[in-house]
Amino acid sequence: MRSFLTALGIIIGVGAVIATISIGQGAKREVEKRFESMGTNLLFVRPGSRSFRGVHGGGGTYQNITPGDAKAIAEKADAVKYISPSVSTRAQIIYGNKNWNTSIYGVGDKYPEIRNWEVDEGIFFDEYMVRSGQKVCVLGSEVNKNLFEGADPIGQIIRIKKIPFRVIGVLKSRGESGGWF
């Protein structure tokens, strides 16, 4: 009788493990299928809900997603092809005696592949430039047109919030107002 109960316990335990794994894989396939049905291959992951004085809603601050979080997403999510951190703000960009108020984006080196953006002049920054914290930037075509008025911007120094950045590239025009990285 003891042998029978032991065998029964093992069978139930193995069955439970197999069922749990199957349910997890089925849920994963279902989530991937739902993302595919949305007709997009772009997913933005933002930190949890905003809170202000203990009330969740539209105001307040986010808790940041860390580089470790991004690395974990890249390692665990098989369907993820590229991953890039992103922050944005608005600020004045200054070159010489000219300035332009625009959106400023801080992104990773894979961002052009994610957004299907092409560089028209120069280069986009690479992983080494990002990791070493080089003060380089890529201008949007609209910012380039307004600050440089046809002059070559590559190698020039611009200032954003009083911090100097060396221009290494310009994005191709996409028919929209363009931004900076």
From TrEMBL:
Q: Which InterPro entries match?
A: MacB_PCD (IPR025857), Macrolide_Exporter_MacB (IPR050250)
Q: Could you name the Gene Ontology cellular component terms for this entry?
A: plasma membrane
- What GO molecular functions are on record for this protein? transmembrane transporter activity
MacB-like periplasmic core domain location: 3-177
Give the transmembrane ranges.
none
What's the name of the protein? MacB-like periplasmic core domain-containing protein
